[in-house]
TrEMBL record:
Family: Belongs to the class-I aminoacyl-tRNA synthetase family.
Gene coding for it: argS
Lineage: Bacteria, Bacillati, Actinomycetota, Actinomycetes, Streptosporangiales
SUBUNIT field: Monomer.
Catalytic activity line of the entry: tRNA(Arg) + L-arginine + ATP = L-arginyl-tRNA(Arg) + AMP + diphosphate
Name of the protein described by the UniProt record: Arginine--tRNA ligase
Entry GO MF terms: arginine-tRNA ligase activity; ATP binding
InterPro entries recorded: aa-tRNA-synth_I_CS, Arg-tRNA-ligase, Arg-tRNA-synth_N, Arg-tRNA-synth_N_sf, ArgRS_core, DALR_anticod-bd, Rossmann-like_a/b/a_fold, tRNAsynth_Ia_anticodon-bd
Keywords: Aminoacyl-tRNA synthetase, ATP-binding, Cytoplasm, Ligase, Nucleotide-binding, Protein biosynthesis
Record-level GO cellular component terms: cytoplasm
Species this protein is from: Acrocarpospora macrocephala
EC number(s) on file: 6.1.1.19
Segments forming domain DALR anticodon binding: 456-572
Keyword NAD carried by entry: no
Length: 572
């Protein structure tokens, strides 16, 4: 067992049982990092009142029963300071280095469905889609690494009344011209041209409305045209996904159209179960606890009064399919924070219908907005949404400019620029809590100092340069690891926390915590490198030990960045 926090947790829990009885064995010891020791246990503070004793007295009782590989000390009003021995840290670091998984445990497998990206096929992808795509892909990678069966679901907006006018516009300009425009990512221009005709040309409007009817009836010719439209649009989406290096493929597409045939049955089932009722001509679910401004029950509309369906209908059909057909144990919806009420009512309605049983977790991974330097929604100076592909290409070109003084050929510079540019954009997004807003700022993102993607990429490149200079292979570094200097100790302790942080990110869907861990790891390595000569160590034993610590740091940083979907160039 290499995780220090887990070792200490179990040690304190054994002490709790010995001190106060077996009923306290499962008590959370409240282990936290400490500036006075490696960790401190704060459980005495929470137990004191229940036991009718002072916190310090409780802490001393617990400390007397703690058996860990290190020192135990009670301080202050009842804090238990825990310091692991250098020998234990060195041995566990050696085990972590030898472990293919670097101390990350494989969890009992669940089927985890992650709904992310989900652009609208009638529009271009813009910066607002960046976060749902990047956060979702990081969560997918973490869940898979933890051993779960992960099913990606790209719930495209690929159905509905706008497609009547979009298909008619395709006929007007010709299939070839439409495909070229959509594949190039000019979906907004295409949509606006179709919309302008719909608003000003009565004949076109009539054709568009008629086309909606044939689309809903899945008329063969209309479906052929729809597939042409969708094929061109998906090719554009795939350009963005390739640029971002995300793992979504065409096989992961599960758009609104997929559920079109079952929407009527969804409504009938809900009505038969008494879950949905007619209200003002519309079919609605009224999940308990949701009220409007005047305290009236808030409706979750399943079928409109004109017989049409909306997002609520499709989303309920989606949950039913994912639970009943895909056998989901956990559902992660990586969707904008503005949809919080809709998602809450969706989950509540699905539970009322029995389609979301208690054993299935359903979570809304809320995504905050991307802001410009003015603190408003990130747009062009003309007030338009910024095209995501253009934004990513600018990130690459700026990264290449940052690296312009490096002595690389054009192909190598382009390759590094691509990895650094995309790493900068993705890390800036992932390093803040997913439900928070953040300001999009290329200068800050691309900085080689501070908590940025390029800083972490540079840290891995610097470690590799140590091995190149010494003509060592990082994969051959075995140690044994010895702990002597405080900087060696701090680095080893930091690295041993990798397994716990990956598990935590998987449980709580918090990739920003992995970012923080990797930044702290890189910072600990910098302190180690400045204080502990590696190639010029005083002895061969110290050199081999420090090479092993450097190799372990390289592997942890590389693996951690890979879980975030960030490539690591060999050189920078």
């Amino acid at each position: 067992m290499t995780d220090p926090q887990l070792v200490l947790t179990e040690g304190v829990q054994r002490a709790l049982a010995a001190a106060f009885g077996q009923e306290y064995a499962a008590e959370d010891p409240l282990i936290r990092p400490s500036q006075f020791a490696d960790y401190q246990a704060n459980v005495a503070m929470s137990l004191a009142r229940r036991l009718g004793r002072s916190p310090r007295e409780v802490a001393q009782e617990i400390a007397g029963h703690i058996d860990i590989p290190g020192q135990v000390e009670v301080s202050g009003p009842g804090f238990i300071n825990l310091t692991l021995s250098d020998g234990w840290l060195a041995a566990r670091s050696g085990e972590q280095l030898a472990d293919e998984r670097l101390g990350v445990a494989t969890e009992a497998q669940q089927t985890v469905i992650v709904d992310y990206s989900a652009p609208n096929a009638a529009k271009e992808m813009h910066v607002g889609h960046l976060r749902t795509t990047v956060v979702g892909d990081a969560l997918v990678r973490v869940q898979e690494h933890l051993g779960h069966r992960v099913i990606r679901q790209n719930h495209l907006g690929d159905w509905g009344t706008p497609f009547g006018m979009l298909i008619e516009h395709l006929l007007d300009i010709g299939e070839e011209a439409a495909v070229a425009q959509l594949s190039a990512g000019a979906g907004n221009d295409y949509y606006q041209a179709a919309r302008a005709k719909f608003d000003t040309d009565p004949a076109f409007g009539e054709r568009a409305r008629a086309r909606v009817v044939t689309l809903q009836a899945e008329d063969p010719e209309t479906m052929r045209l729809w597939h042409i439209f969708m094929g061109a649009t998906i090719r554009y989406f795939n350009k963005v996904y390739t640029q971002l290096n995300v793992t979504l493929t065409d096989e992961d597409i599960a758009g609104e159209s997929m559920y079109n045939a079952v929407l009527a049955q969804v409504c009938d089932d809900l009505q038969e179960r008494g879950v949905a009722v007619i209200s003002d001509g519309a079919l609605c679910v009224f999940p308990p606890g949701f009220t409007g401004r005047e305290g009236q029950p808030l409706p979750f509309m399943i079928r409109k009064s004109d017989g049409g369906y909306g997002y609520a209908t499709t989303d309920l059909a989606t949950i039913r399919y994912r639970v009943q057909d895909l056998k989901a144990d956990r559902l992660l919806y990586v969707i904008g924070a503005t949809q919080a009420l809709h998602m809450q009512m969706l989950f509540a309605s699905a539970r009322m219908a029995g389609w979301l049983p208690d054993h299935v977790q359903a979570e809304h991974v809320q995504i905050g907005s991307v802001l410009g330097s003015d603190g408003k929604m990130f747009k062009t100076r003309a007030g338009k949404s910024i095209k995501l592909l253009e934004l990513l290409e600018e990130g690459e070109s700026r990264a290449a400019a940052v690296l312009a003084d490096r002595d690389y050929d054009a192909a190598t510079r382009a390759e590094i620029g691509q990895a650094v540019g995309m790493g900068a954009v993705k890390y800036a997004d992932l390093s803040v809590s997913h439900d928070s807003e953040y300001v999009f700022d290329f200068d800050r993102m691309l900085a080689l100092t501070g908590n940025t993607g390029p800083y972490l990429q540079y840290a891995t490149a610097r470690i590799r340069s140590i091995f190149r200079r010494g003509e060592y292979d990082p994969a051959s570094a075995r140690g044994p690891i010895r702990i002597g200097h405080p900087a060696e100790r701090a680095l080893a302790l930091q690295l041993l926390g990798f397994g716990a942080i990956v598990s935590e990110v998987g449980a709580a869907s918090t990739p920003h915590r992995l970012c923080a861990f990797l930044f702290d790891t890189a910072s600990a390595f910098t302190t180690f490198y400045e204080n502990c000569p590696v190639l010029k160590a005083d002895s061969e034993e110290d050199r081999q030990s420090r090479l092993a610590l450097a190799a372990l740091t390289l592997r942890v940083l590389t693996q951690g960045l890979d879980l975030l979907g960030i490539e690591v160039p060999e050189r920078m």
